[in-house]
């Protein structure tokens, strides 16, 4: 009989020990859970600092975006200017050469106005006329054109008045005589025409 009581006692002790161990584990777990749970409530000072940092970052982002947009606009303007300069350079690439050829054209005009008396000089004049025609065709292909003067209304953009004369048969301000031919290259005046204008 005493053996039975001892065995019962032992079982009771084991159960009590198990309960103590489980209780201890539960307390430890609750401590662990308590330490791991994050604090959601920030102090007021930290929250204000966070808001200030966000606002500062937003301002920096806006400044960088504005800087980028300005750079992009500058680059587009640069591209347009470069393209325009390139087109102008291509359009007027022969301006310098044609300006140097204007005195040659003037000399051809003077040679053609000379009178011929012999057959030799007539054939020479015919050769000069052919050369002049070829030269005029070449410069016309490059866009060089004569400025119309005689009978036209005086235009200071295209004409340079070097003389004035009274002529009742023409309206005032009309070009009476062309003293030197003027030329335009496409839409640019290369040399204005020197003219005599009616008063």
UniProtKB/TrEMBL annotation:
It is found in: Cytoplasm. GO terms for cellular component: cytoplasm. The lineage of its organism: Bacteria, Bacillati, Bacillota, Bacilli, Bacillales. The keyword Chaperone applies. Homodimer. Keywords: Chaperone, Cytoplasm, Stress response. Residues 1-12 have a biased composition (Basic and acidic residues). CDD domains: GrpE. Belongs to the GrpE family. This is Protein GrpE. Participates actively in the response to hyperosmotic and heat shock by preventing the aggregation of stress-denatured proteins, in association with DnaK and GrpE. It is the nucleotide exchange factor for DnaK and may function as a thermosensor. Unfolded proteins bind initially to DnaJ; upon interaction with the DnaJ-bound protein, DnaK hydrolyzes its bound ATP, resulting in the formation of a stable complex. GrpE releases ADP from DnaK; ATP binding to DnaK triggers the release of the substrate protein, thus completing the reaction cycle. The gene is grpE. NCBIfam families: PRK14140.1 (NF010738). Its main location: cytoplasm. InterPro entries: GrpE, GrpE_CC, GrpE_head. Residues 26-51 have a biased composition (Acidic residues). HAMAP family: GrpE. GO terms for biological process: protein folding. GO terms for molecular function: adenyl-nucleotide exchange factor activity; protein homodimerization activity; protein-folding chaperone binding; unfolded protein binding. Residues 1-51 are annotated as: Disordered.
């Amino acid at each position: 009989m005493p053996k039975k009581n001892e065995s019962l006692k032992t079982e009771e002790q084991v159960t009590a020990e198990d309960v103590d161990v489980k209780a201890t584990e539960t307390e430890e777990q609750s401590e662990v859970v308590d330490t791991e749970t994050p604090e959601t409530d920030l102090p007021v000072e930290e929250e204000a600092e966070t808001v200030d940092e966000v606002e500062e970052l937003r301002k920096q982002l806006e400044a960088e975006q504005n800087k980028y947009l300005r750079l992009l606009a500058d680059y587009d303007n640069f591209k347009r200017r470069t393209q325009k300069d390139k087109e102008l350079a291509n359009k007027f690439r022969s301006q310098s050469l044609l300006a140097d050829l204007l005195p040659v054209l003037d000399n051809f005009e003077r040679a053609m106005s000379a009178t011929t008396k012999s057959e030799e000089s007539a054939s020479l004049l015919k050769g000069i006329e052919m050369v002049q025609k070829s030269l005029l065709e070449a410069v016309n292909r490059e866009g060089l054109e004569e400025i119309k003067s005689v009978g036209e209304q005086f235009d200071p953009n295209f004409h340079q008045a070097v003389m004035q004369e009274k002529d009742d048969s023409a309206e005032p301000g009309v070009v009476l005589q062309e003293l030197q031919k003027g030329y335009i290259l496409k839409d640019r005046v290369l040399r204005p025409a020197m003219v005599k204008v009616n008063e």
